[in-house]
Amino acid sequence: MDDGSGGPIAARRLHTALRQAGHDSRMLVWRKTTDDPTIELFGRSKLSRAASQGLGEPLDALGLQYLAHPASWALPDHPWIRAADVVHLHIIHGGYFSPLALPRLSRATPVLWTMHDLWAVTGHCAVAAYDECQRWQEGCGACPQLHDYPAIRFDTTRWLWRLKRSLYQRSPRLAIACPSAWMANKIRQSPLLHHLDPIHLPNGIDLTLFKPLPQAVAREALGIDRQLKVLMISSPVLSNARKGMPLLVQALQGLDPAWREHLLLLVVGKGGQDLAAQLPGFRVKSMGMVSDEIVSVLCYNAADIFVFPSIAENLPNSLLESIACGTPVVCYDVGGNCEIVEHGITGFVAQKGDIAQFRESIQAILDDKFDLQESSKSVNRIKNKYDIEMIAQRSIGIYNDLVSSN
Question: Which residues contact 149 (CB under 8 A, 6 or more apart)?
């Protein structure tokens, strides 16, 4: 897809940067929302779409997860694939790509596959393997979390795990990339993919867009009082415990009551009204879903703190964006968060699930016990690691290595 969050955003940003650097990058997606001619739907025929819905979805529910999605089987015959030097896969689970297509695709052209989660090395789930379950290291089976995303109805996890192992062994020109060093370490622990020695390839951001702006200008553009302290919150979906919103609610409820009349919660994404209902007495400004990155930049720059309570992450784009805009972050020490946030310099990193420590970190910034001048220099730290132009050039180097070695 060419929209959404996380992996799709990272893929589209890399695609754009590659083209701007003069490379002929194209994107094939299952769902398209833009009019970009370099992004094209695959499996566009009504028959192909009907097969995925009529055959694929029922079989997915029965436990044959994503096996019957025939549009992906024909990808090696797509003219863009036939002309490609390298195919770079991103998120392939979601009901449009069959893992059965991987061996033929990798025989047709070298494939680099970026791990935006751990679905590739589990019997069915994408996120539970982060910390909650280690059965993926032993072959899955007797799955304790069948309903975890992406859910299956019957426990076929051991069989699916073994099928993936067989498919990877029959994919001769497959390489693995990981946005975070944390994810790369996880892949090295997998009996399915550890032999491929994952490549560390972070997500990148456009530093000509995500950059510090005068806070007063950003607040005027968004209609926010200059005298308030602003906490920015992204996608506060209370029903998703992994996003940490129940933890955040408890943390905010415990803040010094004297701050409430001076505090504004700037909420981006779905769930603003639900969050407001959980926090009576707090000012809440809900921006709804924001697809315009210029508006996102204004939000980061209008905020005094970006609070990110998620307890299951890989390498979040939003942390990169906030720090690039000079706005300090409060987050938990999960996934690749601490690879982005330098504790005490570009924000605070609390121990996973420690509500008191998370609250104290917010309070410290509100009480001006944080060197904002040092935080404002953070764009240089981001530039050295995550500048999208640099990531594009690193990607080209990886592609060249794959071509020369195959």
Answer: 125, 126, 127
Residue 86 CB partners (closer than 8 Å, separation 6+):
109, 110, 111, 112, 399, 402, 403
CA distance to 38, 162, 170, per residue, from 19 (Å): 9, 38, 32
Q: Is the dihedral of CA 160, 94, 272, 338 positive or negative?
A: positive
**Same-domain pairing of 234 and 191:** no
What CATH number did the domain enclosing 180 receive? 3.40.50
Beta strands in 19-157 (DSSP E): 27-29, 39-41, 87-89, 111-114
Q: Which residues of the chain fall below pLDDT 70?
A: 1-5, 372-377
In angstroms, rounded to a whole number, what is the distance separating the alpha carbons of residues 267 and 286? 5
Is the full-model pTM beyond 0.90?
Answer: yes
Burial class (CB in 10 A: 0-12, 13-18, 19+), 46: exposed
**3-class secondary structure, 110:** coil
Contact 282, 260 (CB under 8 A): yes
Of 69, 129, 145, 78, the residue nearest 108 (C-alpha): 78
Give the pLDDT of residue 331. 98
Q: Are residues 133 and 233 both part of a single domain? A: no
C-alpha span between 356 and 265 (Å, rounded) = 19
Give the integer Cα–Cα distance in Å for 121 and 259: 46
